[in-house]
Write a structure and sequence with these properties.
The protein is an alpha+beta fold and about 280 residues long. It is built from seven helices and seven strands, in the order ααβαββαββαααββ. Helix 1 packs antiparallel against helix 2 and helix 4 runs antiparallel to helix 7. The chain is globular and about 105 Å long. About 25% of the residues are buried. It binds adenosine-5'-diphosphate. Adenosine-5'-diphosphate binds next to helix 4 and helix 7. One of its GO terms (molecular function) is phosphoprotein phosphatase activity. This is Sensor-like histidine kinase SenX3. Keywords: ATP-binding, Cell membrane, Kinase, Membrane, Nucleotide-binding, Phosphoprotein, Transferase, Two-component regulatory system. It comes from Krasilnikovia cinnamomea.
């Protein structure tokens, strides 16, 4: 067998290796935190000027109301100015959404694992989501239908779960045609409760399916841009799912609609192990 000296050297080398790996992990955690803080700070700083832009655009929109009753020679200039003001308003609203979603994402990334999970009544979540999305849905003549049992409970953060389901329903509406249906279904199981959000919309091509949960990834640029999306909604949903120990999946056919399934824990997390009884010596 190898002399003791060699053994010791091997052990020492292994130890160095482990130490280097540990240092790498610490360093990459530190870098991740620096990156997260940077994004959070920039986003936060951008909120104020973007808010100001939106207010200014609104003031411009008011100031460029066409005169009643008869349009005069100046109307054309006014109309052009109004169109620019509308674009500024539209784009600044989009920047506002982007910044809010970036902030949300950095908050979620910093919050792993979830602080003490609480029981969350899915009835409340569904009612909240339907309420939040009512205006956008009805503008497109889309019905958001719910099927599922009353009184289902999952464990986690009510606001995060409501955000995740809202994002899925908003997408279902955004990527669907007029007068279609969006179905929300809750399917309880022993360990997990699944929430399905199904639409009859444009669907997703197979090569995009794996990537849509990445930050800023958007399947079809042209189509996506028209919705004013940011490419962050599904990354947020994925983070919320994993923070809860659950997951989010999708099945879809291009042109044939999509179904997103959010799986959340149906049981409270393991209660902490009882302290070992004091031993008498
Ligand atoms: P976005 O702000 O672009 O909607 P998301 O992260 O929410 O960003 O979604 C990423 C991309 O996934 C979208 O741009 C779109 O291409 C695709 N997508 C998401 N949900 C749906 C859906 N229900 N039907 C079709 N495509 C979808």
């Amino acid at each position: 067998s190898a002399p003791l000296g060699l053994h010791l050297r091997a052990v020492a080398l292994n130890a160095t290796h482990v130490a280097v790996e540990a240092a790498d992990v610490t360093e990459s955690h530190r870098l991740a935190r620096v990156r997260r803080d940077f994004v959070a700070n920039v986003s936060h700083e951008l909120k104020t000027p973007i808010g100001a832009l939106q207010l200014l655009a609104e003031a411009l929109l008011d100031a460029t109301e066409l005169p009643e009753p008869a349009p005069d020679a100046q109307s054309e200039d006014l109309l052009a100015a109004r169109r620019f003001a509308e674009r500024i308003h539209h784009e600044s609203a989009r920047m506002g959404r982007l910044v809010n979603e970036l902030l949300e994402l950095t908050r979620l990334q910093g919050a792993e694992p979830l602080p003490t999970p609480e029981p969350v009544a899915l009835d409340w979540v569904i009612a909240e989501v339907i309420d939040r999305t009512r205006t956008t849905a009805s503008a497109k003549g889309i019905d958001v239908e719910y099927t599922g049992p009353k009184g289902a409970t999952v464990y986690g953060s009510d606001s995060q779960i409501a955000t995740a389901v809202t994002n899925l329903v908003e997408n279902a509406i955004a990527y669907s045609g007029e007068d279609t249906k969006v179905s929300l279904a809750v399917r309880p199981g022993d360990d997990w409760i699944e929430i399905d959000v199904a639409d009859e919309g444009i669907g997703i091509a197979p090569h995009d399916l794996d990537r849509i949960f990445e930050r800023f990834y958007r399947a079809d640029q042209a189509r996506s841009r028209a919705t004013g999306g940011t490419g962050l909604g599904l990354a947020i949903v994925k983070h919320i799912a994993t923070n809860h120990g659950g997951r989010v999946d999708v099945s879809s056919t291009l042109g044939g609609g999509s179904t997103f399934t959010l799986r959340l824990p149906a049981r409270p997390p393991e209660s902490p192990l009882p302290l070992p009884a004091a031993t008498e010596i």
